[in-house]
Fold this protein.
Amino acid sequence: MDRLAGKTALITGGGSGIGASTAKLFVAEGARVVITGRRENVLRDFSAQFPEGAVSYVVGDITNYDDAGRMVDETVRFGGSLDVLVNNAGIDPAGLAHEIPLETWDAVISTNINGTFYMIRHALPQMMKQGKGSIINVSSLAGLMNIPAMTAYSTTKAGMIGMSKSIALDYGKYGIRSNVIAPGATATDMLIHSMGEGGIGESAEEALQILTRFLPLARPASPDEIAAAVLFFASDESGYVTGQTLAVEGGATIVDPCGVATRDFGKSSWGEG
């Protein structure tokens, strides 16, 4: 339970979902953690769950370059270093390419791409000074495989993967590693909200069942399961791993959608004989 002992981590979007689960796990593994977000009440209430001095929070918007810098500065003041940066904050509005409002497109680019870049840009000098650091970008399965009517989201999540590889290439000589977690369907409030907007199923539970019914594991991930993957990249156990994307997706990337659609018909049925 001490894989992050002595380390200080900064997690954007750290007050809920995958970010909150990651913060809990990091603290359990010995890290001091700073979480960020735009909703002070969420950050304050979540931080209050931890022992004094374990978790701090910074209210701000990663799309604001100065806010991003303040998040990094406050983290260094809080913990004395910046050993781990988890870029978890993001948004996922839907829209076909010819219909999505330009202001929505710009908002997704601003949050998922620019915000991630701003955080990395501010973190790099501190990590270079230290001679070490782990940057973990929470992308999505949508960055590897596309989702219908999610042009902006898929574009930005693929972009995060490219950005992460570039950082790994250019800054490995400073002891800085950069990797990506690409979660599949995960039972977070953001996904449940998105499913509700899409009108899939009659409840959030049914929507998640429909969404994952063809996966080999046939269920969504929990935020805790994604956090466990983030922990691997944050810890020294992955000390020789950089520029990689770990898809945590219940087997989605091995499924042929045409083949799986025939699973209940004749000899193509899975689980027989």
